[in-house]
Protein backbone atom coordinates (compact mmCIF):
# COMPACT_ATOMS: atom_id res chain seq x y z
CA UNK A 1 0.00 0.00 0.00
CA UNK A 2 1.36 3.42 -0.96
CA UNK A 3 1.76 5.79 1.97
CA UNK A 4 0.66 8.77 -0.18
CA UNK A 5 -1.73 8.37 -3.09
CA UNK A 6 -3.02 11.15 -5.33
CA UNK A 7 -6.09 10.38 -7.41
CA UNK A 8 -7.65 12.51 -10.17
CA UNK A 9 -6.39 15.68 -8.50
CA UNK A 10 -7.33 19.17 -9.66
CA UNK A 11 -6.57 22.41 -7.84
CA UNK A 12 -7.40 26.07 -8.47
CA UNK A 13 -6.93 29.20 -6.37
CA UNK A 14 -9.51 31.33 -8.16
CA UNK A 15 -12.08 28.83 -9.47
CA UNK A 16 -11.12 29.79 -13.01
CA UNK A 17 -7.77 28.33 -14.02
CA UNK A 18 -6.48 25.01 -12.73
CA UNK A 19 -2.96 25.13 -11.28
CA UNK A 20 -2.90 21.32 -11.17
CA UNK A 21 -4.89 19.05 -13.47
CA UNK A 22 -5.72 15.35 -13.48
CA UNK A 23 -2.77 14.21 -11.34
CA UNK A 24 -2.43 10.54 -10.41
CA UNK A 25 0.67 9.74 -8.36
CA UNK A 26 1.78 7.25 -5.73
CA UNK A 27 4.56 7.50 -3.15
CA UNK A 28 5.98 4.58 -1.17
CA UNK A 29 8.18 4.27 1.91
CA UNK A 30 11.84 3.48 1.33
CA UNK A 31 11.91 5.55 -1.87
CA UNK A 32 13.23 8.98 -2.86
CA UNK A 33 11.03 10.88 -5.32
CA UNK A 34 11.92 13.97 -7.31
CA UNK A 35 9.25 16.38 -8.57
CA UNK A 36 10.59 18.61 -11.34
CA UNK A 37 9.27 21.26 -13.68
CA UNK A 38 9.74 24.88 -14.67
CA UNK A 39 8.76 27.74 -12.36
CA UNK A 40 4.98 27.98 -12.27
CA UNK A 41 4.51 24.30 -13.13
CA UNK A 42 2.68 23.68 -9.84
CA UNK A 43 5.42 21.97 -7.81
CA UNK A 44 5.09 24.06 -4.66
CA UNK A 45 1.30 23.87 -4.85
CA UNK A 46 1.56 20.10 -4.98
CA UNK A 47 3.77 20.12 -1.89
CA UNK A 48 1.26 22.33 -0.06
CA UNK A 49 -1.50 19.88 -0.90
CA UNK A 50 0.47 16.85 0.26
CA UNK A 51 1.37 18.74 3.45
CA UNK A 52 -2.31 19.41 4.10
CA UNK A 53 -1.96 23.18 3.78
CA UNK A 54 -4.44 23.25 0.90
CA UNK A 55 -7.37 21.02 -0.07
CA UNK A 56 -7.93 19.61 -3.56
CA UNK A 57 -10.56 21.37 -5.66
CA UNK A 58 -11.44 18.01 -7.20
CA UNK A 59 -10.03 14.54 -6.64
CA UNK A 60 -8.29 13.30 -3.50
CA UNK A 61 -5.01 12.85 -1.66
CA UNK A 62 -4.79 9.85 0.63
CA UNK A 63 -2.41 9.21 3.51
CA UNK A 64 -2.48 5.50 4.37
CA UNK A 65 -5.84 5.31 2.57
CA UNK A 66 -7.28 8.21 4.60
CA UNK A 67 -8.59 11.15 2.58
CA UNK A 68 -6.78 14.30 3.76
CA UNK A 69 -9.92 16.37 3.30
CA UNK A 70 -11.69 14.23 5.91
CA UNK A 71 -9.08 14.09 8.68
CA UNK A 72 -7.65 16.61 11.15
CA UNK A 73 -5.00 18.21 8.93
CA UNK A 74 -3.42 20.15 11.82
CA UNK A 75 -2.73 16.86 13.60
CA UNK A 76 -1.57 15.32 10.32
CA UNK A 77 0.98 18.12 9.79
CA UNK A 78 2.22 17.88 13.37
CA UNK A 79 2.65 14.11 13.45
CA UNK A 80 2.79 12.52 10.01
CA UNK A 81 4.69 14.93 7.74
CA UNK A 82 8.11 16.54 8.14
CA UNK A 83 8.92 19.50 5.88
CA UNK A 84 12.38 20.78 4.91
CA UNK A 85 12.53 24.25 3.34
CA UNK A 86 15.07 25.93 1.08
CA UNK A 87 15.37 28.83 3.52
CA UNK A 88 15.64 26.46 6.54
CA UNK A 89 12.79 28.23 8.46
CA UNK A 90 14.60 27.83 11.78
CA UNK A 91 14.06 30.21 14.70
CA UNK A 92 17.30 32.27 14.74
CA UNK A 93 17.20 33.21 18.43
CA UNK A 94 17.18 29.52 19.44
CA UNK A 95 19.98 26.99 19.39
CA UNK A 96 19.94 24.05 17.00
CA UNK A 97 18.96 21.81 19.91
CA UNK A 98 16.12 24.13 20.97
CA UNK A 99 14.74 24.23 17.42
CA UNK A 100 14.48 20.43 17.37
CA UNK A 101 12.97 20.22 20.86
CA UNK A 102 10.38 22.86 19.90
CA UNK A 103 9.21 20.60 17.06
CA UNK A 104 8.75 17.78 19.56
CA UNK A 105 6.73 20.12 21.79
CA UNK A 106 4.48 21.18 18.91
CA UNK A 107 3.83 17.58 17.84
CA UNK A 108 3.42 16.47 21.49
CA UNK A 109 5.76 13.59 20.79
CA UNK A 110 5.78 11.10 23.65
CA UNK A 111 9.48 11.02 24.51
CA UNK A 112 10.77 10.69 28.08
CA UNK A 113 13.93 12.76 27.54
CA UNK A 114 13.42 15.20 24.67
CA UNK A 115 16.87 16.75 24.94
CA UNK A 116 18.53 13.35 24.63
CA UNK A 117 16.33 12.46 21.66
CA UNK A 118 17.02 15.81 19.99
CA UNK A 119 20.78 15.35 20.39
CA UNK A 120 20.47 11.87 18.85
CA UNK A 121 18.62 13.32 15.85
CA UNK A 122 21.18 16.09 15.42
CA UNK A 123 23.99 13.56 15.60
CA UNK A 124 22.17 11.46 13.01
CA UNK A 125 22.32 14.33 10.52
CA UNK A 126 25.93 15.22 11.33
CA UNK A 127 25.55 17.92 13.99
CA UNK A 128 27.50 17.17 17.18
CA UNK A 129 26.56 18.38 20.66
CA UNK A 130 28.90 21.39 20.51
CA UNK A 131 27.25 22.73 17.35
CA UNK A 132 23.83 21.73 18.68
CA UNK A 133 24.30 24.20 21.53
CA UNK A 134 24.96 27.09 19.13
CA UNK A 135 22.34 29.51 17.89
CA UNK A 136 21.48 28.55 14.34
CA UNK A 137 22.84 31.79 12.85
CA UNK A 138 26.27 30.69 14.09
CA UNK A 139 26.07 27.64 11.83
CA UNK A 140 26.84 27.40 8.12
CA UNK A 141 24.09 27.05 5.52
CA UNK A 142 24.75 23.34 5.16
CA UNK A 143 24.65 22.88 8.93
CA UNK A 144 21.40 24.84 9.20
CA UNK A 145 19.83 22.59 6.59
CA UNK A 146 20.94 19.55 8.59
CA UNK A 147 19.22 21.04 11.63
CA UNK A 148 16.12 21.59 9.50
CA UNK A 149 16.14 17.89 8.56
CA UNK A 150 16.60 16.88 12.20
CA UNK A 151 13.63 19.08 13.08
CA UNK A 152 11.53 17.35 10.41
CA UNK A 153 12.54 13.99 11.87
CA UNK A 154 11.54 15.16 15.35
CA UNK A 155 7.91 14.57 14.39
CA UNK A 156 8.80 10.87 13.98
CA UNK A 157 7.09 11.22 10.59
CA UNK A 158 7.06 8.61 7.85
CA UNK A 159 7.06 11.22 5.06
CA UNK A 160 9.69 13.92 4.48
CA UNK A 161 8.78 16.73 2.06
CA UNK A 162 11.80 18.74 0.91
CA UNK A 163 11.17 21.99 -0.97
CA UNK A 164 14.36 22.94 -2.87
CA UNK A 165 16.47 21.67 0.08
CA UNK A 166 19.78 22.34 -1.69
CA UNK A 167 18.83 25.61 -3.41
CA UNK A 168 20.90 27.80 -1.06
CA UNK A 169 23.87 25.45 -0.70
CA UNK A 170 27.23 25.10 -2.40
CA UNK A 171 28.14 22.00 -4.39
CA UNK A 172 29.72 20.05 -1.53
CA UNK A 173 26.88 20.74 0.90
CA UNK A 174 24.34 19.95 -1.81
CA UNK A 175 25.82 16.49 -2.23
CA UNK A 176 25.88 15.91 1.53
CA UNK A 177 22.21 16.87 1.96
CA UNK A 178 21.14 14.71 -1.00
CA UNK A 179 23.00 11.74 0.47
CA UNK A 180 21.38 12.36 3.85
CA UNK A 181 17.88 12.39 2.34
CA UNK A 182 18.66 9.22 0.36
CA UNK A 183 19.85 7.54 3.57
CA UNK A 184 16.61 8.44 5.33
CA UNK A 185 14.65 6.65 2.61
CA UNK A 186 16.88 3.64 1.98
CA UNK A 187 18.10 3.00 5.53
CA UNK A 188 15.26 4.36 7.69
CA UNK A 189 12.39 3.45 5.34
CA UNK A 190 11.06 7.01 5.03
CA UNK A 191 9.15 8.28 2.03
CA UNK A 192 11.17 11.27 0.79
CA UNK A 193 9.66 13.68 -1.76
CA UNK A 194 11.99 16.36 -3.11
CA UNK A 195 10.86 19.36 -5.14
CA UNK A 196 13.88 20.70 -6.98
CA UNK A 197 15.53 22.19 -10.04
CA UNK A 198 18.86 20.56 -9.21
CA UNK A 199 20.46 18.30 -11.79
CA UNK A 200 22.28 16.55 -8.94
CA UNK A 201 18.99 15.72 -7.25
CA UNK A 202 17.57 14.49 -10.55
CA UNK A 203 20.52 12.14 -11.00
CA UNK A 204 20.11 10.55 -7.57
CA UNK A 205 16.41 10.07 -6.86
CA UNK A 206 14.71 6.69 -7.33
CA UNK A 207 11.69 7.98 -9.25
CA UNK A 208 10.98 11.19 -11.15
CA UNK A 209 7.73 13.04 -11.72
CA UNK A 210 7.63 15.97 -14.18
CA UNK A 211 5.04 18.73 -14.07
CA UNK A 212 4.31 20.99 -17.01
CA UNK A 213 1.63 23.66 -16.57
CA UNK A 214 0.05 21.60 -13.81
CA UNK A 215 -0.02 18.31 -15.69
CA UNK A 216 2.17 15.23 -15.42
CA UNK A 217 4.29 14.54 -18.45
CA UNK A 218 7.23 12.47 -19.57
CA UNK A 219 10.62 14.18 -19.36
Secondary structure layout plus pairing:
Blueprint lengths: L3 E9 L5 E10 L3 E6 L6 H8 L7 E6 L2 E2 L5 H7 L1 E5 L10 H12 L6 H11 L4 H4 L8 H13 L5 E5 L7 H16 L4 E5 L3 H6 L2 E6 L2 E3 L2
Parallel strand pairs: 3-8, 3-9, 6-7, 7-8
Antiparallel strand pairs: 1-2, 1-4, 4-5, 9-10
Give structural notes.
The chain is an alpha/beta fold and 219 residues long. The chain has a single domain (31-41, 73-217), classed as 3-Layer(aba) Sandwich (Rossmann fold). Helices cover 35% and strands 26% of the residues. The protein contains 8 helices and 10 strands. The strands form 2 sheets. Strands 6-7-8-3-9-10 form a 6-stranded mixed β-sheet, with helices on both faces. The chain has a 4-stranded antiparallel β-sheet with strand order 2-1-4-5, with helices on one face. Strand 9 (207-212) and strand 10 form a beta hairpin. Helix 6 runs parallel beside helix 7.
Order of helices and strands: EEEHEEHEHHHHEHEHEE
* Rg over alpha carbons: 17 Å
- Rough shape? globular
What's the N-to-C terminus distance?
26 Å
State the secondary-structure class.
alpha/beta
CATH fold assignment: Rossmann fold
Low-confidence stretches: none
Question: What is the CATH architecture term?
Answer: 3-Layer(aba) Sandwich
Largest sheet: 6 strands, mixed
CATH structural class: Alpha Beta
Number of domains: 1
Report strand order across the widest sheet: 6-7-8-3-9-10
CATH superfamily caption: P-loop containing nucleotide triphosphate hydrolases
Our estimate of the beta-strand percent is: 25-35%
The chain-level mean pLDDT equals 92
Amino acid sequence: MSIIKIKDLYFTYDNEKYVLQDLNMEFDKGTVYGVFGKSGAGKSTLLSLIAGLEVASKGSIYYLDKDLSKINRDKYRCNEIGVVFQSFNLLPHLTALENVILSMDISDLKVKDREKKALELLNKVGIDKSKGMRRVLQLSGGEQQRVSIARALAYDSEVILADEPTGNLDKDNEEDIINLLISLAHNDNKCVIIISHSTKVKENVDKLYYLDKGKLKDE
